Amino acid sequence: xxxxxxxxxxxxxxxxxxxxxxxxxxxxxxxxxxxxxxxxxxxxxxxxxxxxxxxxxxxxxxxxxxxxxxxxxxxxxxxxxxxxxxxxxxxxxxxxxxxxxxxxxxxxxxxxxxxxxxxxxxxxxxxxxxxxxxxxxxxxxxxxxxxxxxxxxxxxxxxxxxxxxxxxxxxxxxxxxxxxxxxxxxxxxxxxxxxxx
Length: 197
Fold this sequence. Notes:
This protein is α+β, with helices and mostly antiparallel strands. It folds into two domains: 6-20 and 112-193, no CATH class; 32-104, Beta-lactamase Inhibitory Protein, Chain:B, domain 1. 21% of the residues lie in helices and 37% in strands. It contains three helices and ten strands. Strands 3-4-5-6 form a four-stranded antiparallel β-sheet, with helices on one face. A four-stranded antiparallel β-sheet has the order 7-8-9-10, with helices on one face. Strands 1-2 form a two-stranded antiparallel sheet.
């Protein structure tokens, strides 16, 4: 199995922190000092992004894709920095009925989206979660625990499903480098099966 990169594991831990802080933090994302939030008008959002960013495709090129008579899909755009090169991908914004309905931004700008290790971790997580819930939705209990070890410390991110299955991601640092790898940092990714909660 390929060695998981520490940056991927740190991104996963940042994801947990975002999820845990969701009830406490404002529901806004900031792009170059300009705040966007779900529900704001498209006009306000375009005005806020106008000085710092550009949208791709441009905001004027709305495409209302209807699939089999269903509701139109949101009109989605990449948010890209105006200054460059290199131009930075800052996130995405989606509009429907004249309002912002979805915003994304990277958890970590140093995340290498083409790295074999990052892709391998994402696929492993997806496979594990898919086997637990299939192509559906499920409630999940998310927990983060800091643990002091005899020879180091680690943070443990756990996703527990209602049937007792789960995924455990551990990222740690040893007090001294391991003799066999000559490294202090480590990460593990395990599937778990526990008594349902």
